[in-house]
Every structure is written in structure tokens, then in C-alpha cells.
Amino acid sequence: MIWDFRGPAANQTAIHHVIHLKEYMQMENIAHYGCESLSESEFSAMAFLIVDEVHVPKLRTALKPHRGQLCE
After folding, report:
1. Where would I find the H helices in the chain?
2. Tens-level pLDDT at each residue, the chain (72 residues)
3. Are the beta carbons of 4 and 68 closer than 8 angstroms?
4. Which of 2, 3, 9, 25 sits a CA distance of 20 to 30 A from 56?
């Protein structure tokens, strides 16, 4: 699951979003395989969360990611 952020505060926003994603995952007791932020440029960043496919429908509804990608 991927969240995209744009603008001068994109990197800080992505970093902050990861904090909330990790808190949510802990609160809901859902295991994840990665939750990080990546700065793509000065004005573009993303936060991502890697989970088992079985959790995707619930998390998609609750967390509203901008896009997703299947990892194998």
C-alpha cells in the first residue's frame, strides 16, 4: 500500500504518516513486513506499508492508500 505526498513538506509528511501507520498496525495487532518512507525528490515522497494480502481489503477501507502494488 502506497501513499504519495507532494510539495515542499512531502518528506516530513511521509515520515509522519509512517508513525501513524505503525501505531495503527500495532493497535489492530496486524503484522507487517515493512513500513517506511522514501523521498523521491525535493517535492515528492511516499510512505509504504507491506502486509499479507489477506489484510488488504480491511486496510484499504480503513487507511485509504493512494495506490497499491503486489509484492512476491
Report:
1. 10-27, 56-63
2. 999 999 999 999 999 999 999 999 999 999 999 999 999 999 999 999 999 999 999 999 999 999 999 988
3. no
4. 9
